[in-house]
Automatic annotation (TrEMBL):
It comes from the Bacteria. NCBIfam families: TRAP_TAXI. This is TAXI family TRAP transporter solute-binding subunit. Keywords: Membrane, Transmembrane, Transmembrane helix. The keyword Membrane applies. It holds the Pfam family NMT1_3. Gene3D superfamilies: Periplasmic binding protein-like II.
Amino acid sequence: MNPGERARRASRRAVSRIRSFSLVSLRDLLVAAGPTIVLVIAACVVAYWVVDPAPPRQVRLATGQENSAYEAFGKQYAKELKKDDIRVTLQPTLGSRENLERLRSGQADIAFVQSGSTSEEQADKKVKELGLVSLGSLFTEPVWLFVREGVKTKSLTGLRGLRINLGPEGTGVPNLFRQILSVNGVEPKELRIGALENTPATVELLAGRIDGLVFSSAPEAPLIQMLLQTPGIRLFNFSQAEAYTRRLPFLTHVTLPRGIVDLGRDIPSQDYHLIAPTATLVARADLHPALIDLFVKAAGEIHGGAGWFQQQGQFPSPKFTEIPVASEAAKYYRDGPPLLQRYMSFWLANLFDRLWVVVVALAALVIPLSKIVPPLYVWRVRSRVYRWYGELRAVEQAWEGVVEAQREIVRHDLLHRLDEIEEQVNHISIPLAYADGLYGLRGHINIVRQRLQAAHHDESGLPE
């Protein structure tokens, strides 16, 4: 081996030896902290996925009949939530009553429901039994009674004997209009009530085969827009609208202004007084809180503007709903969107929100375990030195118990054992922070060796 190669090998050995005397022993640190790290990671995973699971990427929204406002608004909600990678599956239904049934059976996660579809007592019962919550009211749904031009009545009592379509029982309109008839002293059996859906009922009205039909919908519904401009079809004017709101508290008095449909053609040609329940967004109580925030946000985008019957910012609102408003929705109405969602995308903000749960779980484990790991690490490092003190003590005890005749032989063996111990100690790898213990051990080995050598000098009479 040439001198250059020997120098390189010597250099590598020196570097390796220096590394063995680092400030911290990574191996000992990992062994001491390993179980704690595994426990903390497991706790974080459990907290992340179980305590506060991620919101689903798909939600089912029960809407309403074909060409209804519920159907039109459902499409807008699907478009809004698609921006945040949430797929909204729209479920066409007959209306409010069927929507409530779908929520009850778990076929839908969220639905449009008309106020007045349930009495206050029924609403309380549904909340307790089903766990339903309201996300707020969205818009007014006037009661539109369209009749043929030949029907001249100005009072609902004049509808006796006429063919009036109220729609299928799965909608909220039949129950609503029966209550309206009741306060007028008119029994439903005094009318020839039809149960056609909105589109075929409109065809029947235009064909003259029925005398009138009742909708309860926002004015954005295509059929409402068409009938308001159809010659030969007249909108009934609820001139006693204010009295209706006193008798039926879930109703409000709204006015359809003259010319609002078409100013140029002056449609309608007069102000019309209407009575209106409100459309609400009702969800199952187990709907993910993050989705509640998203739907309330979307409601603000869709329904927050001025309209035929509302002022800018009047809707959505936590008012006008029999079903209690979800706490998350109430907080949104009070404080606005969550802080992080104001500056981040939905999924990134949700990730940070969920990380708070992980941080709490982490703190709950790290704080107590941080008091255990350091002493455990120190004990593991120092134990490399301490175990040789046992060997050193065994040498001393062997010398103290030896008989006079064997002292020289035993002394020689013990000195050889001390040399072996010292050789082993010289190869101990220990962090520099704990090197004092290593040097102390070497000093104690030397002290024991000196005692054995001093005993030899005493016995032989030689000067030390």
